[in-house]
Sequence to fold (681 residues):
Amino acid sequence: MHVFHQIYTFLLPPENLLLYLKIIIMNQNKKTYQLPNYQLPIINYQLSILLTVFFFALPLKAQVNIGSNTSPHPFSILELTTTENNHGGLRLPQLNNVERDTVQTKFNETATTAEAAKGLVIYNTDTDCLEFWNGKEWISLCSDALPPQPTLEVDPTSMTFDGNGNITSSATNTATVKTNVPEGWTTSSDQSWCTVTPEFGAGTSLAVSCAANASNAVRTATIIVSATGAASQTIYVTQNMNINSISESGTVLPNTYVGAFWKHDQTGERIIRITGITTANAGAWTASVGWYDGQWNAADGDGIVLSASSTLDGSVSFTSDITPGDAELYPVTGGTPTVSGTITGIGTNNTIMFRIGLQKKFTTAFSEKTPDYTTTFPARYAVVLLSYKNNTLIQKIFIRQGEGPDYLMRGNDLPGAGSDITSRSASQCKQFSPYNLTATSLNQQAGYNGNEPNPGIFTDYPSKAGTLFQWANNNTGYTRYAWNAYTSGTLGGINSTLWNTSPSTYWNALKGVHETCPSGYRRPTDGKTDGADTGPTMTLSEMRQSLYLTPKLGIGVNSSDNSVWGYYADGFFDRRQITGGPVSSTYSGTNSSVSRGNNQIAHTGCLFYNPYNNASLFFPAAGTRYIYDSALWYAGASGFYWSGSSNSTTTAWFLLLSSDGASQSNNGRPYAFSVRCVKDN
Fold:
């Protein structure tokens, strides 16, 4: 082409060249241009010579370079060259679909023509894509002609399992796999306890399984999913420790929280503040959500969150007795399933503190009065694990959401080793209220069976002491009296003679007059209720079969294999200054109580838990009023809870709780103890 260009330039003077170009341009625009008559012979003559030379020049040069006088590369037929002052590109024919198809009709007249048109290239203005004819159809270079890039997607990319190998982060342990790689995908796990099924394939899902974690530590695994040519994907697996392998004995911190409670429609913060930690237990600590029962759905935002940040409630004080704000006004936002910190145990750096919050109310499946335990439940349960001393010691914090009366131990729960029974009686396992009994007005007679006037009612928080009741007192002035649990010393105006008396008959004959539980509830039994039971009769003991993992006969038999002593974060106790029991109370507790000077007094206490399903039930250490003079003893140090069973005509069985453990005992009926009611069904 450069030969043609040189001859063309030589034959046409500049003025004729410009004129010729003008004619061509106007012709392209479908316009006419009239040449002066004197130029027509000259132009015709020059064009004739030019065309003659062009046709003679073509065989001389089979390769063409447009834009440069240099020779094309030997491997090319046509080259387009840009220069420093001449930049541009190749502009292909611009056709829309209709125009393209019109061209196609020309070379579709015969199969030979269509075959010969292979490689024809246009720019499609309808699709804004280059297209070429492959002999059969137009192929778009935007997509059709390019092989798809290998892709690989996996969802979810993280999973969490409990210590038994059950998935807790979602409903199933499967992940969805999407890839366009024909040969499919492969997987690999960096831990032998974490496996994938299938390990390879072309399917759309895989399943992750974890063996039981027998260690006292959280462990992690990484699963790599690969497909040829595609970016590999990772599934991060976290498995919590097996909480049932964690022993409470010897690992619970002094002055610690052992549980937290919410009503079914509550979600606000609960403050876990453990003080006075010495250097012996100092170091790194970690709190994490370790277990949920089946009523939670943490993967869908219905779980537990933790935060190491302080409460935003400025009226919370741990050093002065002031009234804090409602915990429901202070939710835990932006929390995570795990928080951690480090303490030295030196000076003021001796406190572990974090907050627990719930993400949702327990409303859909909650039923306080008539749960069927299939679709409706009186409560749901979880466990938060607290490790300390550089994460070498671990304790559990039992979580409960729901105020409905519930079973602790159930009829199908096997008794522990050393029990005096081989199986439980479902009829003796009862639903306990989570609250102590109190009354609208204190130091007055309470109404029978929740009736007016002054009916017996439940406290509004599980940690509150409520009131103290004598087992039974026939004296008109003291029948069903609800004695306060916070005034130290002897109650004013008490007639000690009338106080220290009781009927000699049994509960079956007395309950019609002396029952103080609300309607639909009653006192639990610890044996027979129609006579003296010195054993007592285990098959008739609702307390022993309902509360103890290892029920045993006799008096003073301690059992701590399913109970633990400590504070209970219920939105009341955990937001206040902790002090000792009531001032001048005999044998009162130390660092045990809040609001100790009024009828809102609340205490540390004993939490029973079911090791099979982690159900929990808290009893505050409300103390007792003494048998002879009504003086307040052991407030904040021990809990005493009446049953409806008697050891003799003058003594009755009761539940005895202290930091040493839980046991059954009996004592004189004139004592004033707490009452914890069970559902009467």
The first strand starts at residue 64 and ends at 66. Helices lie at 2-11, 14-28, 40-57, 97-107, 111-116, 496-499, 507-514, 542-547. The first helix runs from residue 2 to 11.
